[in-house]
Write a structure and sequence with these properties.
Blueprint: H1 4-12, H2 24-32, H3 38-42, E1 48-52, E2 67-80, E3 86-94, E4 97-104, E5 118-123, E6 125-128, E7 131-135, E8 138-141, E9 151-155, H4 164-178, H5 188-193, H6 199-207, H7 212-242, H8 254-261, H9 270-283, E10 290-295, H10 301-314, E11 318-322, H11 326-339, E12 347-350, H12 356-368, E13 373-376, E14 390-396, E15 417-422, H13 428-431, E16 439-443, E17 453-457, H14 463-475, E18 479-483, H15 492-506, E19 515-518, H16 524-535, E20 541-544, E21 557-563, H17 570-577, E22 587-592, H18 599-610, H19 614-631, H20 650-666, H21 676-686
Parallel strand pairs: 4-7, 10-15, 10-16, 11-13, 11-14, 12-13, 14-15, 17-22, 18-20, 18-21, 19-20, 21-22
Antiparallel strand pairs: 1-9, 2-3, 2-5, 3-4, 5-8, 6-7
The chain binds adenosine-5'-diphosphate (ADP) and magnesium ion (MG).
Length: 696
């Protein structure tokens, strides 16, 4: 005989065919939805609900919200027009009057109505003269004595061949068979303390909520659970990356601090000092720092990173700075060359563009500890890169949300400290999720004298005016960018459009000026040469793709035209615009959208014109695009959330995070039997994505 739990597991894991109403054919359809077991059915949640809570007499109908009316079919009429279109009207009489249901181009529905039949029509009623009508109402045909459905009717995502009512019936059957056997991942006292519905009730209400309040409670429970599991995974990952790991203690002394600061020709901003203080506190501990540094474009993050690197070097450790592109690696290198011109800090550049011989030399220097500062691209994490004494790793992630490649840097003995730098502000929701295993330092202020960028959203007929202004500024000695979107560098068509833009400017509006052309597919040396020419002013206008978005710093460039800006994300646009606010002169940025601008795209661009605050833009972008686009793209390796909606469930997210941290602080391995089920969920869902070692 099975023990009761085993019976439960067996029942829940039964194939769907065991449910009433599911034969091999429906089972196949369900499989397409990812449903193969009874349990899968229970956890296949509705995507939406149809409101059957508001039943009314016809006299009391109102426009604008979904209501239901019970009545008797009085007249059915279907008119077909010569062009093939048709209108079906079904009149019903109910308490207080007459209501007409109207269907366009669905003449076959006529068969479903008979005069004298009891029905319910649900939908948003509209007044039509003296009558009320509903377009394409939802219909219930009632048998004799049968009571109408009430509450919120679940609407599931379907697949061809499966209807809502069929799936509803299957869900009901699954609830009947499986519900008593579903175990709650939460211990009862935990549930009560956090005001969470028991699992049975929550499942019943999420599928068939009697009213909006019950649905909200059920939803809250699942949202909380989903976010708690995520936050537990993050907390455990963090714990695993710190406990049993030893990192060098890099204490800052007054002397070291003075020596580092002396290298910079300016005072640090309060925001920079704050971030430096937070980093120094971490570095003084013998466990690896895991910290995210974000702030607006040009807020001086690189300087903070440089401080940390020099601190590590002062203690005799190597530090590595990893960038997403070669251009950026070279630029960081140039920054450090300037900064360290008179110091003994030894720096090397390691990129994919090195010849095998150069590469071998650099690798040997790194391995022998003859390089203090190693700057490079992904090439840094390749197999053969072996550090001598790596103390600190800085990952310049730019805004490629969550592309995490921390793990692989090779060190012997101690673990390095980690600092992740994001080029633009990260929305608060994402700092708690995709970056949720990191501490966060935020720079809110900007170095003094930062110039405002005047931004315009141009109508096509304003082009002439803009280029005239552009030329005038060029004659005053400024430089500029013309950016066209090449989203996929492999996309030939886009490159053509870049070259066309170049041709037409070079032979037209900007004929009298020195133009350069740059995109990501040019060989590295060529890119370098072009950047050099631009920096020295030999090139006045750079016609380019978004390759320049990544941190290019030419203070004299104050002009930017962006073609098809709707094809960029807000973060990217902001990053681009940041290129023209680097110097003493005010910047000007003009957007030339394409002809078919969507509503959403227009909103984004308008927000971009309205504010230059990167934090605000990050939140707008997140709200407009929704978490789906960021969280849904699998590039960061996180499985998508199924219930929680991060734009709307922020409060629950914060709550779940706090609770998860408490749980893990007390029990890092979730070893207490009361967490056994939660622990299993954490591992099943995030074990791989977050590289969680099997917790003991
Ligand atoms: P971020 O990496 O945040 O975009 P950077 O560190 O590249 O910003 O700094 C942008 C520019 O501002 C650089 O030219 C840098 O030298 C300068 N800068 C940074 N901090 C200060 C400061 N405290 N005072 C004056 N200029 C600064
Ligand atoms: Mg920077």
């Amino acid at each position: 005989m099975d023990r009761p739990e085993e019976t439960g597991v067996r029942i829940l894991n039964r194939p769907v065919q065991y449910l009433k109403g599911v034969g091999p054919q429906r089972a196949e359809l369900l499989a397409r939805l990812g449903i193969t077991t009874v349990k899968d059915v229970l956890f296949y949640f509705p995507r939406d609900y149809f409101d059957l809570t508001d039943y009314r007499e016809i006299t009391f109908l109102e426009e604008g919200k979904v209501q239901s009316v019970e009545g008797v079919v009085a007249a059915v009429e279907c008119r077909t027009f010569p062009n093939g279109r048709s209108v079906l009207t079904v009149g019903i009489t109910g308490k207080g009057g007459f209501l007409r249901g109207v269907w366009f181009n669905q003449p076959y529905l006529r068969e479903q109505f008979q005069v004298g039949q009891r029905v319910v029509f649900s939908g948003k009623p509209r007044r039509a003269g003296l009558l009320w009508e509903m377009f394409h109402p939802m219909v219930q045909r009632l048998g004799e004595e049968e009571q109408p459905q009430r509450g919120l009717l679940p609407l599931y995502s379907l697949t061809q061949g499966l209807e809502q009512w069929e799936l509803r019936r299957i869900v009901r059957a699954a609830l009947e068979v499986g519900l008593p056997w579903v175990e709650d991942v939460f211990p009862e006292d935990y549930r009560q303390k956090h005001a969470l519905l028991p699992i049975q009730e929550a499942l019943r209400f999420i599928h068939f909520p009697p009213d909006a309040t019950s649905l909200e409670k059920a939803r809250r429970r699942f949202v909380y659970q989903e976010l708690l599991v995520l936050q537990l995974a993050l907390a455990i990952r963090r714990c695993q990356q710190q406990s049993f790991r030893k990192a060098p203690v890099l204490r800052v002394t007054r002397e070291i601090d003075k020596r580092i600061r002396r290298l910079f020709p300016f005072e640090f901003t309060p925001g920079q000092n704050q971030a430096i203080a937070e980093i120094c506190e971490d570095l003084a501990k013998p466990v690896p720092m895991l910290r995210l540094l974000h702030g607006d474009v040009g807020s001086g993050k690189t300087v903070v990173a440089a401080y940390a690197m020099l601190l590590a070097v002062a203690h005799g450790y190597q530090t590595a700075l990893m960038t997403p592109t070669e251009v950026l690696a070279r630029q960081h290198m140039a920054t450090f060359e300037r900064l360290l011109a008179h110091s003994r800090v030894r720096r090397v550049l390691l990129t994919g563009g090195l010849s095998p011989r150069e590469r071998a030399t650099v690798l040997a220097q790194i391995a022998a500890g003859e390089a203090d500062l190693v700057i490079g691209t992904q090439a840094l994490i390749q197999e053969d890169v072996q550090f001598h004494r790596l103390g600190l790793v800085i990952i310049d992630e730019q805004h490629k949300f969550g592309v995490r490649q921390r793990a692989a840097l090779k060190a012997s003995g101690e673990d390095p400290h980690y600092l992740v730098m994001s080029a633009t502000p990260i929305p608060r929701t994402l700092t708690l999720t995709l970056f949720g295993d990191l501490d966060v330092s935020t720079i809110r202020d900007a170095p003094p004298g930062r110039q405002r960028v005047h931004t315009f959203l141009a109508e096509p007929d304003k082009r002439g005016q803009w280029w005239e202004f552009f030329r005038e500024k060029l004659r005053e000695g400024r430089q500029g960018y013309v950016v066209t979107p090449v989203i996929e560098e492999s996309d030939e068509l886009d490159l053509v459009s870049l070259e066309q833009a170049f041709e037409s400017l070079a032979n037209g509006e900007l004929e009298a000026f020195r133009l350069g052309l740059m995109h990501g597919r040019l060989p590295a040396e060529q890119k370098q040469a072009i950047m050099h020419a631009f920096r020295t002013g030999e090139i006045q206008v750079l016609v380019c793709t978004s390759v320049i978005e990544v941190g290019i710093d030419v203070p004299n460039a104050t002009l930017m035209a962006i073609e098809n800006p709707e094809r960029f994300g807000l973060a990217q646009l902001h990053q681009l615009r940041g290129r023209v606010s680097r110097g003493r002169y005010p910047g000007y940025c003009c957007l030339f959208p394409g002809p078919d601008l969507s509503e959403q795209a227009r909103k984004r661009l308008e927000a971009f014109v309205r504010t230059t605050d990167g934090f605000e833009l990050a939140e707008v972008d997140f709200a407009l695009r929704g978490p789906g686009e960021i969280f849904g793209t699998r590039q960061h390796g996180f499985p998508p959330l199924r219930v929680a909606d991060l734009t709307r469930d922020y409060a629950v997210l914060v709550e779940a995070r706090r609770d998860a941290q408490q749980i893990v602080a007390a029990d890092p391995g979730l070893a207490n039997p009361q967490w056994a089920l939660l622990r299993r969920q954490v591992l099943a869902r995030y074990g791989k994505a977050l590289d969680l070692a099997e917790v003991a």
